[in-house]
Amino acid sequence: MLDLTGKNAFVTGIANNRSIAWGIAQQLHKAGANIGVNYLPDEKGRFKKKVTELVEPLNPSIIVPCDVQDDELLDSMFATIEEKWGKIDILVHCLAFADREDLTGDFSATSRAGFAKALDISSYSLNCLAVRAKPLMKEGGSIVTLSYLGGVKVIPNYNVMGVAKSALEMSVRYLAAELGQDNIRVNAISAGPIRTLASSAVGGILDMIRHVEETAPLRRTVTQTEVGNTAAFLCSDLASGITGQVIYVDSGYEIMGM
């Protein structure tokens, strides 16, 4: 029943084969979607090579550079999407960053620059993508982003990223309210801890994973595929009545008090 054939799906934030974005892109492709991706530009072209080789089995029709802190690159990326696709049906936002030194120790020690950078890349970037995607979602569409429990509860060492995820989740609600009249749905997936390049920067990430495995009702954490399946569902007509929501995919950990 889950069929995305004929849908154009653009997935941001694939860094390597451990990325949750990679798991989502695979499941969207499996459901029949036409895939486009971005990579972070760098002088030596390392990210372009790595991402291009990784996504080759998905036969992506668009691979473009983009740094969400650069408005010119954002405009160029969506100009390419419009030129090649004409429209976009699905947009997946898997972008988050904070300086490593702001992900350990005291939250009060967060630098002004580090706070601004984390909020800009991890939260404001959703607005940057949504405002450019809106005119290309001519037949409606689905926008999905990634959050984490640290946006609503205190997680050791998550610090400024928790504030960024809180802002991201509220952005989901405001965007859902604004874009609903255009039949554009906006939702977030709050995934359990998974070992990724991004999560490795959080101090004590392995302890967090072990704690979830011991405490969550399913006695395990989740996989990229499970998050990808939920994203595919949210991007499909099966979820046509769901918007402005944060869906927990965390083996039930969020419900536990102790």
From TrEMBL:
Keyword Repressor found: no
Query: Known EC number(s)?
Result: 1.3.1.9
The UniProt record gives the binding positions of NAD(+) as: 13, 19-20, 67-68, 95, 165, 194-198
Please report which protein family the annotation says this sequence is part of.
Answer: Belongs to the short-chain dehydrogenases/reductases (SDR) family. FabI subfamily.
Q: Which NCBIfam families match?
A: PRK07370.1 (NF005615)
To which pathway does this protein belong? Lipid metabolism; fatty acid biosynthesis
Which residues are listed for substrate binding in this entry? 98
Query: Could you tell me what reaction this enzyme catalyses?
Result: a 2,3-saturated acyl-[ACP] + NAD(+) = a (2E)-enoyl-[ACP] + NADH + H(+)
Q: What is the lineage of its organism?
A: Bacteria, Bacillati, Cyanobacteriota, Cyanophyceae, Pleurocapsales
- Residues of the active site are 148 (proton acceptor), 158 (proton acceptor)
Its name, as the record gives it, is Enoyl-[acyl-carrier-protein] reductase [NADH]
Keyword list, A-Z: Fatty acid biosynthesis, Fatty acid metabolism, Lipid biosynthesis, Lipid metabolism, NAD, Oxidoreductase
Q: Does the keyword DNA-binding apply?
A: no
Q: Which GO terms describe its molecular function?
A: enoyl-[acyl-carrier-protein] reductase (NADH) activity
GO-annotated biological processes: fatty acid biosynthetic process
